[in-house]
Amino acid sequence: MNAPFPVADARRALIDRHADLINAAINAVATRAAWSPFKDSPSTKIHGPDKPLAGKAAFEAQLNRPFDLDLPGVIDHVGAEVSPFTGEALGITYPRCDPEALIEAAQTAWPDWRAADPELRLALCAEMATRLYDVNFEMAQAVMHVAGQSYTQAFSGSGPNALDRGIEALAYAAKAMRDVTRSARYERDFAGEAVSLDKTYALVPRGIGLVVCCASFPTWNAYPALFASLATGNPVILKPHPIAVLPMAIVARECRRVLADFGFDPNLITLAVDTLAQPVAQVLVDHPAVQIIDFTGSPRYGGHLERTVTGKLLFTETAGVNTVVVHSVADLDAAARAVARAASLFSAQMCTSPQVVYVAPDLVEAFGAALVAQIDAIADDPAMAVGIMGAIQGEVSLKAVADVRGAVERRDGVHVLREAAPYAHPQFPKARTLTPLVLAVDGSAPDLYAEEHFGPVLFVVTMDADAAVAEATYLARTKGSISSYLYSTDEDFIDRSTPLYEQAGANLTINLTGAMWINFAAAYSDYHVSGLNPAGNACLADLAFVASRFRIVQRRRPSE
Amino acid sequence: MNAPFPVADARRALIDRHADLINAAINAVATRAAWSPFKDSPSTKIHGPDKPLAGKAAFEAQLNRPFDLDLPGVIDHVGAEVSPFTGEALGITYPRCDPEALIEAAQTAWPDWRAADPELRLALCAEMATRLYDVNFEMAQAVMHVAGQSYTQAFSGSGPNALDRGIEALAYAAKAMRDVTRSARYERDFAGEAVSLDKTYALVPRGIGLVVCCASFPTWNAYPALFASLATGNPVILKPHPIAVLPMAIVARECRRVLADFGFDPNLITLAVDTLAQPVAQVLVDHPAVQIIDFTGSPRYGGHLERTVTGKLLFTETAGVNTVVVHSVADLDAAARAVARAASLFSAQMCTSPQVVYVAPDLVEAFGAALVAQIDAIADDPAMAVGIMGAIQGEVSLKAVADVRGAVERRDGVHVLREAAPYAHPQFPKARTLTPLVLAVDGSAPDLYAEEHFGPVLFVVTMDADAAVAEATYLARTKGSISSYLYSTDEDFIDRSTPLYEQAGANLTINLTGAMWINFAAAYSDYHVSGLNPAGNACLADLAFVASRFRIVQRRRPSE
């Protein structure tokens, strides 16, 4: 065991330790090639046999106990998480804090942080990501049991894939901050007099960043928001969804430890736990000390923020209606399998899940049948169903699917291709599961399919492909879309379709089949959300996601 | 004479012609050293004897005539400009257009522009700047006679110095757009399968940019806003102040010619002329096709926009209360002269003009006397007064000064150090002029000096320097400040003061005397407006000023 370094030495060493990581991430976002510093498989071949067990043990040891976070202004302890896999309450309680105390604590902690070298802030965020990767088996259990993601998806999608989004935001923060020289010599002749000024340029953070997290995929958007605000010098208050607190509590715990380890006040990151009955988000949104808001969640509240927040930075990701247009296919089963897998992944509780599949009339019967067969192949194989579909987080999603199913009998032109049904989870017999409902619809029912239904339901719409592209891109413009999909063997059709997607701000995946999930969005390579349609105003991640989180204040004086 | 190139060749040649300019500007904003592609003196030694005369002739030929702009949806012709130098109406009328017709024309013009190579858009903006420099003697006359700036200031401050701000914004637009690779190959193994995707990333503009210009310094903020929006692919509607249309009409004329010369629809830039009785700004602000708003002008309307605009980009520069703190001086006359010149320049109708001069008690009598002497030295020398003070644009500024003067008799602790008075303009006997009112005030009268008075009035406040810094930075935080000034020979005092300015988002000039105007803000080197206080939310110019004016939309498909 080494003796503890003095803090200054430890900080310098940390900057050195993470310099390559940050520079590699900067290179990755420039080239957009595949890259990650992490392994996104939970395989024991990679991680050894002990880490998965230790992660599970850590999770289980936390059940039915107060979560240990030494937050300021604690009012009481609350907790309402129920595992979608066991149906049982996790029994974990979290400190609920006076929002004013969280604000005050952030402001008290802030001066040291704003004065810190931006390179140190970047390195500390990289260290937080590294520590979170170290506890990712615990995180995977936590995400599983609050969100319902399968174990493998919770490990990868809510672990490395999400941490990569965070490091991607760090890369842009580094680029934006390094773009500003900290000093300059200005020499010019004025009216025959040689003038020489020394100028300094300070990066000044804006204020407290509030990160409002969603319930189904909390870490994926939280990491980039957290690191973007924090690296640029702003304290952060994490506001988890009241039914999915544990992942963000783990984040707060790890990040606060890193801050403390390197001599900073841990209250630079706090957790604003609330309850469904007494939500706290709006109090924080309205507080003048909160200057940056990152929101992921429902279009309803996201839209409210978009219509009401002024004088602050607001970054949103909400939802939309993702579409597939099938014009023609080289391999019908491969295309149907790709769509079936995307519609089954996490039971379509993802912002990239397809909901509407437009199929050209000559293909629709065959494609619909193949789609059902491919979904059945997943649903009927317990190992696959477990790994792909996971569980249904909320009763509300069961109801969403049931509501759609109920509408079928009352409508002409709608019929059931595949009934939704629970699948039997071998490990968790009480798991709340539901395989996708698949409906065949004609174009007369857009009221039914053209609104987001948050749950496993897929509409197969018979429509000429050009008309389908027109409608799909109209939906993207008016309802929002994060991921759109197109299948065609006709390059002319593709060429005339792609501009419509581009104008609708719809990121498009063309003819993708095979082992990669078509709705997988890779940090460093795939831009997530265009900001051009109602699915959100921010992109993970680009320069615009970070460039305004800090400001520049200058001084100048005659050179010595 | 060469034969006209085909358009495509001309476009390629234009990109080549301006490549060095744009790259030099990118280098300048990185190093922040002094640089400009232009000469900011109107001297005939630089420009020859003909250009000044030709510019004056062009201006005079325009008087009492309709301004020739072939805009869509013309309703009628209006014009209400009166020269502050002659007191006479310019008699120029401008087409007033149906705002809906301007929007429609912009949308019709847009597809070609959004499809254009970003490098071509950059080159076209550089070409516009170059052409505007070519007509800068005409522009100088126009700015003189609508705004009241002196000839030399109108030439430099509203010409090259403003064009530099535009090219600075272009440099950031180039950086932000070049930061996005247009294509990538993504190769990764998924579940043992090698996946290779080709990805393309399109830069997609947001929508129409509205540039709302101020009356007193219209080009300086308009150029960066215009070029930032235009280069990133957005059509622009210029909305000049109804009493200062001519400069923006010249801008529209020149820029539309450039667009037409290179095969683009000139309606990518239009002019929305209105009248004081029937303002059109809000109609355009509210229009859903307008997605970017750049506003320069009054805190009243700017604040209204800041409180009400949602779902669109809003960049504002309004105003504030700029302060000088005099703690101690090496050379009292030099410091007093520096402040006197800044307070006299354009009769303090600038967003960087100082208004409140806090002087330490031991210095205040001597400094006040020196300040008055230095202002007198300018006011009493007709050549200097003409060149520095110019004219008063609006009656409202005379009234602002008269109102302050009227309050003196009714207050204790306030007395007149120097009376405001017109100076006799040798060339324009009817010029509306006013030399600065200088009042001595004690700290009990902040209600008098702590609000912006838009006109030549200077308050000399007796206050201990530490208390003065506290109050000056409080005013910056609460009322806004674009430029703050500090004089001290005590490095300890400077060291403890600068963090307060930084926290207030107040750009600070320390101990500057001599030939350079202390309120001169150099493009490429000085950041103008921090965005951290009520003086505005945007900075000229940084990455944040441009990075969100376009978005990124991607496509991906399996590699061939």
From TrEMBL, chains A, B:
<dbReference type="InterPro" id="IPR016161">
    <property type="entry name" value="Ald_DH/histidinol_DH"/>
</dbReference>
<dbReference type="InterPro" id="IPR016162">
    <property type="entry name" value="Ald_DH_N"/>
</dbReference>
<keyword id="KW-0520">NAD</keyword>
<dbReference type="Pfam" id="PF00171">
    <property type="entry name" value="Aldedh"/>
</dbReference>
<dbReference type="InterPro" id="IPR050485">
    <property type="entry name" value="Proline_metab_enzyme"/>
</dbReference>
<keyword id="KW-0560">Oxidoreductase</keyword>
<feature type="domain" description="Aldehyde dehydrogenase">
    <location>
        <begin position="82"/>
        <end position="492"/>
    </location>
</feature>
<protein>
    <submittedName>
        <fullName>Aldehyde dehydrogenase family protein</fullName>
    </submittedName>
</protein>
<dbReference type="InterPro" id="IPR016163">
    <property type="entry name" value="Ald_DH_C"/>
</dbReference>
<dbReference type="InterPro" id="IPR015590">
    <property type="entry name" value="Aldehyde_DH_dom"/>
</dbReference>
